[in-house]
Amino acid sequence: MILAITGGTGFLGGHVLREAAARGHDIKALTRSAQLPRPNVEWIKGTLEDHRVLADLAEGADAVIHIAGAINAPALAGFVEANVTGTASLLTASEAVGAKRFIHVSSLSAREPDLSDYGWSKAASEAMVVQSPLDWTIVRPPAIYGAGDREMLELFRVARRKGILPLPPKGRISLIEAGDLARLLLDLIGAKDAVGQVYEPDDGASQGYSHREFGKLIGQGVGRPRLLTLPVPGFVLRLAAMAERMRHGDRAKLTPDRVRYFCHPDWVVQKRPPASIWQPKVSAAEGLKATAGWYRSEGWL
């Protein structure tokens, strides 16, 4: 097949490109800047703001997989531009050139749109996908981890160096390894029963993981089996976000928006894909250990 992919230069996108190439697909991938050659990949230079480039990207594609988006922004406008306007532009271009299959990577945060600007923007992007005439499927991943991930890297570093891991207040989360998620996105392309569906995939843990269980798994991965997890109250995280903004301005990674997301007590998936379409292969225990190993091999940990 010919696949059109946004977000291919990112963490999850890299896993999707590798899996798609391994399956023998031809890939057209959007990029803002020049990239090194990759097997089966034709880089299309442009952005989600360039309608002509998006039309070139989607033209002739058997499926469009939309991964690109912002997970952090200093204000709502940044999320709207990346997650809402960008999705609308890609939908319009895909429809204009006759593309039919559209796989949209959203977020579990879309389930709680009033909780954070990020979640609102993802819910808004989903609303546009649902209203389109394309054969769409929406995927809402929970926390994604794996080789190449920088979002969770600091947790691994703190766990290894300190033996103590500060975590959000009491709650439960689901997890999915990036390679597993990449398989799902590609498996969905030919799954007729998946058209018009919203799925929330994970590693198969029916009740997810408490924050303490999650921290312990990271501890085991970095060689700290007796790791101490330390729940941090929400008000402390809010103060930390304010301090982060004062130090780093718009480059701050811990924002009030993210704190509201982190402190929500229930990020366990509810609408798993049917086993007839896809099943996870990587448990959190083995996946987080493998991720720690990858960090060490790359000198990140």
Keywords, please?
301 residues, alpha/beta, Rossmann fold, 14 strands, 18% strand
- What's the architecture of the domain at 2-149 and 174-204 and 270-281, going by CATH? 3-Layer(aba) Sandwich
How many whole angstroms does the radius of gyration measure? 19 Å
Q: What are the segments in which pLDDT stays under 50 over at least 5 consecutive residues?
A: none
Largest sheet: 7 strands, parallel
Listing every helix as H and every strand as E from the N terminus to the C terminus, the arrangement reads EHEEHEHEHEEHEEEHEEHEHHEH
Explain what you see.
The structure is a single chain. The chain has 301 residues and is α/β, with parallel strands linked by helices. The chain has a domain at 2-149 and 174-204 and 270-281: 3-Layer(aba) Sandwich (Rossmann fold), CATH 3.40.50. The protein is built from 10 helices and 14 strands. The strands form 4 sheets. Strands 3-2-1-4-5-6-11 form a 7-stranded parallel β-sheet, with helices on both faces. Strands 12-9-14 form a 3-stranded mixed β-sheet. It is globular. The protein starts with a strand and ends with a helix.
